[in-house]
Amino acid sequence: MLPFFLIARGCHSLASTMLVVSLGWHLYEFSGDPLDLAFVGLAQILPVFLFFFASGWAVDHFSRERLVKLCLLVDLICFSAMGWIMLEATINTAWIYALVFVQGASKAFASPAMQAIVPNIVEKSQLNRAIAMTSTTWNFAMTIGPAIAGLLILWLDRGVYFVIAGCAVVGLIAISRLPRIKPAGSQKRSWNDLNAGLRLVFNNPILLGSLSLDLLIVGLGSVLVLLPIYATDIFQVGPEDLGIMRAMPGIGSVLMGLYMSKRAELTKAGAKLLIALTVFSLSIATFALTDSYWIALAALFIYGASDMVSVNIRMTLVQLATPDELRGRVSAVNSLFIATSNEAGDFRGGATAAAIGPVATATVGAGLALAITLWGYKTFPTLFKLDRVDSVKPS
Question: Is the Cα torsion angle 310, 242, 172, 140 positive or negative in sign?
């Protein structure tokens, strides 16, 4: 069962990453306005907030594999519709934003469902290995997705969206091979039942610190939305080079993840988190100020590698501190924080770049990321004093 799930997980991640790169290139090529990139980020993040409570509750109270299947079907329809709209000489951006919103709503349910589904399809003794394989699949898809998107834009131009739709088809077929998964929780619909995951996170300073720091630092410092602007206006390179730029954080993330997976245990986790967040901030500053394409690639590589350390610590803490019956709702909280940092960060980056330019935007983001790291060190001392992550117990 796990191989079919990994195929579905990989296809979902691959399609999502290719979509971001493709829309970024085509919309900026069409209008030359960074605000279009900001509005795409806004259309992706709004559904996560709107459906936050519903998605976590649904994952814990409905069949998880059927929920993922429905989400992939919605993705297929949205990607296909985007492809037909893109065939027109003039892009109807209003329809594109609407479809991105619908696909974002689908992702708001699919992401926590995929995080929570693994314990339902493997034996408990194989859970650690299964989670590692799932993370590797996700990172691999996020790594090759931008490069594939860049090449497909070069070869197919706007036909790339039909290839993205094909990824959804493969994922839909794969997830259909899983057996039915029974609901994990009761059918209660009280307010306390809906917000149980949120209360768990806010009552645990280690979880709250790790999640909130990732949200603020990535949300205010991310440079990924600026890559089409840097590629076109600063480095003056083509879509295939944009794909390489977009892939570099993923390459750094995968290699760091492989290195960390070889270690039996993670010790001095708090100190390593502090170092990782500081290096992440400095990599943003390096990218912001260089006019060399190759130095920018190196900075993006370090950007991804340092972020992987933070991600690894955060995901391990989430798994260890969460009771099984709350896995869907806590996964929804985690997805909310991730989406807020990524998509809201895209909106912030695009809107700020439209106002003050891409270089100033990235430079300010680096300064904010470093300042938040220092604030987090003072605010969450328990997190940064943490030694072994496996010392954290379910609360």
Answer: negative
Q: Report CA 348 to chain centroid distance, whole Å.
A: 16
Q: Token pair for residue 243?
A: 């794909």
Tokens of 126: 């194989």
Q: pLDDT tens digit string along 43-78?
A: 887 888 888 778 888 888 788 889 999 999 999 999
List, in order of start, the domains of the chain with CATH numbers. Answer: 2-391 (1.20.1250.20)
Asked whether the beta carbons of 181 and 121 are under 8 A apart, the reply is yes
DSSP letters spanning 11-32: HHHHHHHHHHHHHHHHHHHHH-
pLDDT per position as a tens digit, 7-56: 999 999 999 989 988 998 899 888 888 778 778 878 887 888 888 778 88
| Cα(266)–Cα(391) distance, integer angstroms | 11
Question: Do the beta carbons of residue 311 and residue 254 sit within 8 Å?
Answer: no
Enter the pTM of the model. 0.70
Produce one character per residue of 128-165: b if its CB has 16 or more CB atoms within 10 Å, e if not: eebbebbbbbbbbbbbbbbbbbbebbeeeebebbbbbb
CB atoms within 10 A of CB 83: 17
Single-letter amino acid code for the residue at 276: A
